[in-house]
Specification:
- This protein has 265 residues and is mainly α.
- It has a domain of 106 residues.
- Helix 4 crosses helix 7.
- The protein is globular and about 60 Å long.
- The N terminus is likely disordered.
- This is DUF1624 domain-containing protein.
């Protein structure tokens, strides 16, 4: 699980920037780096971290994923809609995702990443640009309710069921779980393996939940509470999530390598 958020144009309190969004991204990015550091210690160095392999670790992971994806959909609406700019952003994110797949395939095949979170963000942005004329026609309250319901309903499709977190409502037919296209949708073939897998289903609905939440709040006084500067260093981190994401894992590995050589691990 390697969540990252697109650097959407959130606004500065003097120029309209929503600095609290940068702050939330910065806090969540630090949480993600800590989670990945813990992952490396547990699975690569055999360190026993109580709770990490159980429910507390899972909830930590999911909180990072959910917040990043929701915020990314929320930020998609910020600023004037520029389809070309967003397409370029989507292609950049997709390219970074493909690069990570290639690197893990060559360097760490046991930790192979196929359709990781960056690939998802790229697809989500491109799909949202394509469907934007339709998405914006749907009333925000209706869109938000439908997307939340669909997210919960499709949460476990990769496991063969409609349902949420083990609450199995309806089994899905096996013929759906064939081929690369269906894997991208959320129906991986038997034996599929990826240490970071974010298909369109269910995550696109969480992305669009953020989209409709912004549209629901747009023009409301509540948005002014997102503008104040609260912590400049965290806001800076939140504005540079993509480059930090791309270098954080090699940096962690270098730190742990040096710690091991020094006899600390």
């Amino acid at each position: 699980m390697k969540p990252i958020l697109t650097s959407a144009p959130s606004r500065d309190s003097g120029s309209g920037r929503f600095c609290v969004l940068d702050l939330l991204r910065g806090i969540n990015l630090i949480s993600m780096i800590a989670y990945h550091g813990a992952y490396d210690l547990v699975y690569l160095y055999g360190v026993d971290l109580p709770g990490y392999r159980g429910t507390p670790g899972y909830l930590w992971q999911q909180s990072i994923c959910w917040l990043f994806i929701f915020l990314s959909g929320f930020c998609f609406c910020l600023g004037r809609f520029d389809g070309g700019r967003r397409i370029r952003r989507g292609l950049l994110l997709s390219s970074c995702g493909i690069l990570i797949t290639a690197v893990t395939m060559i360097v760490m095949p046991s930790s192979l990443i196929i359709l990781g979170v960056l690939s998802f963000f790229g697809l989500a942005v491109l799909l949202s640009v394509l469907l934007y004329p339709l998405l914006r026609r749907i009333p925000a309250p209706l869109g938000l309710i439908c997307c939340l319901l669909l997210f919960f309903l499709t949460r476990d499709v990769s496991s063969g069921w409609l349902g949420f977190e083990g609450l199995r409502l309806f089994p899905l037919p096996g013929f759906l779980y064939r081929g690369a296209f269906m894997m991208i949708l959320g129906f991986p073939w038997p034996g599929f393996f990826s240490t970071d897998y974010f298909p369109l289903l269910p995550w696109i609905f969480l992305f669009w939940s953020g989209f409709y939440t912004f549209r629901l709040l747009s023009g409301q006084a509540v948005l002014r509470f997102l503008k104040p500067h609260l912590c400049a260093p965290l806001e800076f981190i939140g504005r540079h999530t993509l480059p930090i994401y791309m270098i954080h894992q090699p940096a962690l590995m270098a730190v742990f390598f040096l710690a091991e050589k020094a006899g600390l691990l």
